[in-house]
Amino acid sequence: MEEIIVLRSSQNEVLLQEIKDKLNVDVQKVHLSVRPTINIVASILTAAPKIKLITCPPSLFERTPR
Predict the structure, then answer these.
(1) What pTM was computed for the model?
(2) Could you give the angle at which helices 12-22 and 38-47 cross, rounded to 10 degrees?
(3) What are phi and psi of 8, to 5 degrees?
(4) Can you give the residue range of the structural domain that contains 48?
(5) Structural domain includes residue 39
(6) Alpha-carbon span 4 to 28, nearest angstrom
(7) Which of 25, 32, 54, 64 has the most CB atoms around its CB within 10 Å?
(8) Quick one: CA torsion of 45, 48, 54, 56, rounded to 10 degrees?
(9) pLDDT 10s per residue in the chain (66 long)?
(10) DSSP 25
(11) Is position 64 within any domain?
(12) Residue 30, Cα to own-chain centre: how many angstroms?
């Protein structure tokens, strides 16, 4: 089973640093504790180009526009 990397920071700058520190080309699954911005998604894709799954808490789904 593939490991899920959990990124917990609620501050964008800290989260971006956490992405740089924890992600690499082998990472395929990431869980965010906050709703991702386009900058966060772009950083994840840059740090982990083989990413297959990015998840966030279900409570954020209600706040996401359709």
Answers:
(1) 0.85
(2) 10
(3) -110, -10
(4) 4-59
(5) yes
(6) 8
(7) 32
(8) -90
(9) 579 999 999 899 999 999 999 999 999 999 999 888 999 999 999 999 999 999 998 887 676 666
(10) T
(11) no
(12) 5
